[in-house]
Amino acid sequence: MAKFISSKEASELIKDNMTIGISGFGGWNAPDEVLMELGKSFRETGSPRNLTVYTGVTPGDTTEDGYGLSLIGEEGMVTTLIGSQMGLAPKIFRALGQNKIAGYCVPLG
Fold first, then answer.
1. Is the Cα torsion angle 67, 78, 91, 23 positive or negative in sign?
2. Please, are residues 32 and 62 in contact by the beta-carbon 8 Å criterion?
3. CA 82, 90, 8, 28 torsion-angle sign
4. Cross-strand pairs, 53
5. What pTM did the predictor assign?
6. What is the Cα–Cα distance from 96 to 1, expressed in whole angstroms?
7. CA 58, CA 87: separation in Å to the nearest integer?
8. Segments of the chain scoring below 70 in pLDDT
9. pLDDT digits (tens, 9 = 90+) for 50-63
10. Contact at 8 Å (CB) between 60 and 66?
11. Among 34, 50, 67, 71, fewest CB within 10 Å belongs to which?
12. Euclidean distance between the first and final Cα of the chain, in Å?
């Protein structure tokens, strides 16, 4: 039997130092409600932190406080990003360029 949980409950499963996979393709199909809850939790409690994120095309909409990975762009939250295209989440992209996040680019296709 399928079990459904809320985005808040899903976000609470993610702890410090975990490796997570995030779906989505640009501005489409990312788990934005879960990412919103993760960002909110980090701002309120400082956790989860030091996350490693695997993704294909970075989920995002090219706006500073938009959707996708921009929702978890607080410094210290993500420490490693492994993906194929990273420019759609400005906070994350800037942190990569400043060596605040380790970035590994792999082919999409």
1. negative
2. no
3. negative
4. 20, 81
5. 0.92
6. 42
7. 7
8. none
9. 999 999 888 988 88
10. yes
11. 50
12. 35
